[in-house]
Design a protein that fits this description.
The protein contains eleven helices and ten strands. The protein is of the alpha/beta class.
Length: 380
Amino acid sequence: MVLLRVDVTQEVLLTCMTHALTTESEEIMGLLLGDIEHRDNGDTVTRVWMAYPQIRTDRRKDRVETSPEQMARSSAHAERLSRETGIRTRVVGWYHSHPHITVLPSHVDLRTQAMYQILDESFVGLIFSVFNGDAVARSSRVQLTAFQAVSPGQSGAILGSPLGSHELSGLDSPTKAAIKASMDSVAAAHQQPNALVRREVPIAISPPRNKVEQSLGDFVVMQRILMMEERSAYQKAMTEAGAPPPASPASPSPAAPVSSAAAAVVAAPAASVASAGACDGGSPRVAAGGWGSALVQLHHASSYQQGLCLLLGTTVAPALASLQALLWQQQLQARQLRATNEALRRSIEARKAAAASSAAPEAKPASNAQVLGTLLDISQ
């Protein structure tokens, strides 16, 4: 059954785009939640209404990996959403970024997509190509594609998308080299047995249908995932250095200043150095590996704090500003709707009053006999 189209909500596009733009030196990855719709005419449409960012276990500029445990947690989260909302939800796709390279999937992407399609033939992949700048115009563009992995002889298979020199003229040299290398890699892969090629799937940006699709919960989760990635990398670096990470910088309190976490890291090595004893004259004596361990801990702590500050400045702060602007816009719209509602209510009441007055019977003038009778009654 051929997948006809992928419908992506505006909220999912916002989350995935923001996630892809968080780093230009490494690829990011996440899963897509939604449902597969089978139409009466036989068409199959994948609808995506939630993005589930993943913590990367391998962070490279040309490759990204995640753990199977996160895939299981995403499936469990989809089942929980189905029970709580009554809307069937499951994992229907995945997305990742291509910073500074073409939007076309690599042979590794095609193998990964083929593996997912073994579980579900309607599984789809999204690629966000970001940070591809035009050196002449000093502009940047973002490209998005949806694809599936198929054999070269299947319907809709695209064996390659060669680009002419006129199409590469506006790109910088690294982007041109990356596109040409990618096309050469694709062409070489097609010559191998059991080769896989991409099949493009049309994408439609769809408005939300209900409150579940309107939620920005995945946008908030993305911020937490990025913070957890930095913490996980910091803990791994400290473990490899032979010193377990202190608790304070690993999970700093939201109310505590950033400098307090760094101070805790500096205090720990300083305490170990001071407790090592003293040399002649009472000067501090460093145990074997003491200063080295202290410098390593200080370096990792500084890198960790630098990463957190970078996330705050480039991701969290803009997200809060955008949400605040959205809140102000909705409050303005609410005031306008209330004013319109009040004006309509007054108009309806005025029309009802006018209709009631026009429907009331008019008073007829009294006849001469009635007037004469009234005067006789008064005189008597």
